[in-house]
Amino acid sequence: MYRYVLSLFFLLTASGAIAQTSTLLAPDQVPGGGAINIAVSKSDEEDGDNYFAEAEKNEKKGEFNEAMTLFGKAAFEYNNAREFVAYGSALLRLSNIHLIMEHYTEAEQVVLNVALKNYSRIGNRKGQMDSYNQLGKIYFAANKLTQSLWFYTQQGMLARQLNNNPSYIDSMLGIALVKVKKKEYKLASKDIVKAELFARSVKVNQFNAQIKSTKNLISEKVNSKEIRRIK
From its phi and psi, is residue 32 left (phi > 0), alpha (psi between -120 and 50) or beta? Predict the structure, then answer.
């Protein structure tokens, strides 16, 4: 089922559906010489909202296959309604379900081939930043550390431009975890200290637990390395 949903989005992209705009007919093409706009049904957006809400409920219950299908339907309806910010949000949530289920290729392609292009086309920089974050997570989980580091870095750069402090801290934590996985513990430690100091300076507390757990992880890795060296 998830491959069917993914194929649907690739079909939308290939056919140019996400780039649709209201079609305006020339006066000489319309009886009476007037111009008309092809209307977008409000029900499409409402259907998208309903599918999205149901997808979230299923995700919370751990029913990921159903959540995946519903996020896909929500994205389809938002696209029809030309609600492209909501469309991108549904795509990122769909990608995250793929990530949870360890469908790394599908998770990557939904963001790279659809969500990121959508946000770029409409000039939504926050959406681009969130897409970079999602790609950082995907590549980290797939053990593609060079790509993960690049996208976390791009997220951080855009977060600074947008003055989005939480996203900037999140990017630094992502970078630190990549360096831990690469066994670059000194560099990771510097990044986590930088993130901690910055979070205090801007009074952002939501990452305190994550900062603490990452610091503990670095300490465990360093201590383990020292024990192996002594032995």
Answer: left
